[in-house]
Amino acid sequence: MTDKKAKKLDLSITNETVFSFVKTFIAILIALAITFVVLCVVSKNPVNAFITILTGALRKTRYIGLVLERTVPYTFAGLACGLLFKAGFFNLGAEGIFVMSGLIISIVAINPITTSPILHPLIAIVCGALVGGVLMLIPAYFKAKFNANELVISLMLNSIYVAIATYVVRNYFLSQSTSLIATPTFLETATIGYIIDKYHVSIMFILMLIAVIGLQFVLKKTKFGYQVRLAGTNPNFAEYSGIDSFKLAMKTNFIAGMLAGIGSAAQILTQASNFQPSTTVTNIGFTGSLLAMLGRNNPIGILVSTFFIKYLEQGTSVLYYNDTSVPSEIIAIVQGVVVLLVSSQYFLKKFREKKLLQEGLNEHE
Amino acid sequence: MSNLFTLEFITVIIRLTTPILFASLASFAAAVTGIGNIAIEGIMTMSALFGIIGSNLTQSAVLGTLIGVLIGVVIAMSIAFFSMRLGANAVLVGIAMNTFSSSLALFILYQFTGEKGSSASLLAPTLGSWNIPVIKDIPILGTLLSGHLVLVYVSVILALLFYILTYKTPLGMRMRACGLNPDAAKTAGINVQRLQVLSLIFSGIFAALGGIYLSMNYGKIYVNGIVAGQGWMGIAANGVANGSYGLLLIAALVFGAFRAFAIKVNIPRFGDLVGAVPYFAVFVTIIALAIINTIKVKKGNVAEQ
User: Fold this and answer.
1) pLDDT at B166
2) Closest by alpha carbon to A325, among A52, A30, A59?
3) What would the pLDDT profile of A315-348 be if each residue is shown by its tens digit?
4) Distant-in-sequence, close-in-space partners of B303: CB < 8 Å, separation ≥ 6
5) CB distance from B96 to chain A under 8 Å?
6) ipTM over 0.90
7) Per DSSP, what are the bridge partners of residue B4?
8) Yes or no: is domain B2-266 CATH 1.10.3470?
9) Nearest CA-CA partner of A91 in A145, A138, A159, A161
10) I need a surface site. Which of A5, A88, A329, B172 has the fewest CB within 10 A?
11) How far is B106 from chain A (nearest CA, A)?
12) How far, in Å, CA of A177 to CA of A39, rounded?
């Protein structure tokens, strides 16, 4: 009997996966409803404005390209945070890693190391990834060895890294052509071009897809992935079942740091022309943690939610372009409400329990 | 260097310490019952903005302040709602609130002023400074104690009151019990959740006053990015203090003095790095505490055997 049940695709609300989809969907509906109410207050033409937010990104191929391009660094940030959360680490260091990796990537990108347009960005990406991985080991080491609070440590490191990057750029790599604290413009050979020009698809986009699928596979199908999930859900059990938690912590954090570093390269080498420590990659790491929450720490979920948020964000920019009474920051409302509701364990839980109870009673009869 | 230790410089230190003191109190107030409130930066931003807007709408600085504080309490309550009622992780709710607030503040500022930079176009009365009647005429003591901004006095008084509340009253004792061991507190018949909500509200009020201080007392307008990491400084101070109220106040003062020195001394090459020293201090302190703890536990184990 159990065999038959397992084979049948369970599409009822009581199924865990279906329920999380329904929950996310309802959270999005609530967020959009709130957005509409806000639009009614601030805009003269709320219906039109609302439709623009929902469909604005589709109006020009260039807009779709921008959505795809902006999805890449944020997805990498989301993957980094998602992996850490999944393993039970409250490490918000991705924000700082984006800055420090960005610094190294930019230093590589302004120096004529090689003339090859393939090798030059590749070196930059590898350097960024390695720096990210190594720096992420700092909070991981102190957490795993001495149980030091990785949250506070990583937050402090974020501020320290911004200061270091600003110091290095101001004193050693300052551009003479602008009054800002910025590096000189990157060399032509270092910037990453598009493979599909029309949709702004670059090699970083492909790399992101590989990372998403790869991480999904690793988490679901490998021993390492199993250990990560086990350590995240029940660290004591993981410890007692013989998992070397120190080694695992170092591995997970190193991979997360590398993901953040590659994300930083995606932002810098495709979307920026120089590096400004206080603006170029600001808030990507923090947003990554929200996207991880939204995607329930699942790689594919993170990719989908990042795309969703960036899609709406493009819609809000189009809206601001047409109707200046609604600044594009309205996206924050959608993002905030969806993230808060999706991460709420008990949101809709009563409803689900009622259904479960009903089902149980029905079966009993 | 000669004019470093003048009375004016002490005034500068006091002025720069106040927002950090508010933020530190906010972080401490939440931590007392075991809640990590990392949305202090966001609350400060929103309250700084709403203080000015409220003051503009009512044309009263006091009412504006109250509106700003109210917003702080509302955000604190919503953190409580999402983390306790809906079971979301408090830290993640805090991050969401921070990101949410910085964009939302921009959005609201734009609705009221039509620009995204500052509230300069909003006419809003702000809080002034206060001269203590008799003391202000005493030569040195007068400049030292009198003539400070109103919220400076408020911060000192609140710091004192909150000390009395947490350490000298039954309510404070219960709150600390929640932080030390929530299960034991529950067994002793304490309504842990209610006290946690209460401490979050305190945290919201302190953070709100910190934000209002920046926009309506220290400055006269709301500027985008006005909080500039001072909320994190408060969290940092609380991290160093590790549960000790005295250390918390000292840490806030040290961080404030540090900012004053950094501005005054203006070390040309290393200015950027100097700004990060407080964060580094916290980094080192937390690691040192963790290492000491680990050693203690190990020693304890050996002794037991």
Assistant:
1) 94
2) A52
3) 999 998 888 888 888 888 888 888 888 888 778 8
4) none
5) yes
6) no
7) none
8) yes
9) A138
10) A5
11) 7
12) 42
